[in-house]
Structures are given as C-alpha cells and as structure tokens.
C-alpha cells in the first residue's frame, strides 16, 4: 500500500509550520544568522561589504555573495534607488 503508516496505529502526523519546524529542519546545519548592523544606510553598505570580504577570505563564497546582496540593497537605499 502506498500510504502505509510505519508508526503503527498512531495517527498520521500533521505537518509542522513555524519556528519549531525551522529549528528541526536546520538542526546540524551551520547557523548563518546575520547579527544586526547598525548605522546609516552608507555605514550599513560599508559594513556589509566588509563582511563579504571576510567571508570571501574564509572561503565561504555563498556567504560572501549574500553579504554583497545586502550591501547592494543598502547602496540603493542610500542613493534613493530602491528599485529591484
């Protein structure tokens, strides 16, 4: 049967949404949470560029690209161009 319940007679589990599901999905994965960057838009732009350089030097090209995208956002905010 394609819909066998391997847990026996227990009811089928409902999908979990929200923070509990996110924690469960990311357990064992490295945390990539960005700490808050304070300052003006220009300062945030510079700080994200610095983080991108740090990530690049550490060999994390994905994190570096993420930081560059954040920096680009703050560049557009600083210069009044918030178009995608």
- The arrangement of helices and strands along the chain is HHH
Question: Taking all residues together, what is the mean pLDDT?
Answer: 77
User: Treating each run of at least 4 consecutive H or I residues as one helix, how many helices?
Assistant: 3
State the distance separating the first and last CA atoms: 49 Å
Could you describe the largest sheet, including whether it forms a barrel? none
By helix and strand content, what is the structural category? mainly alpha
Which radius of gyration do the C-alpha atoms yield? 20 Å
How large a portion of the residues is in β-strands, by DSSP E? under 5%
In total, how many beta strands? 0
In one word, what is the shape? extended
Residues in helix, %: 40-55%
Which parts are unreliable, with pLDDT below 50 for 5 consecutive residues or more? none
How would you summarize this macromolecular structure in one to three sentences?
51% of the residues lie in helices and 0% in strands.
Describe this structure in words.
- The protein is mostly helical and 84 residues long.
- It has helices at residues 19-26, 41-57, 61-78.
- The protein has a domain at 37-84.
- 51% of the residues lie in helices and 0% in strands.
- The model has no long low-confidence stretch (mean pLDDT 77).
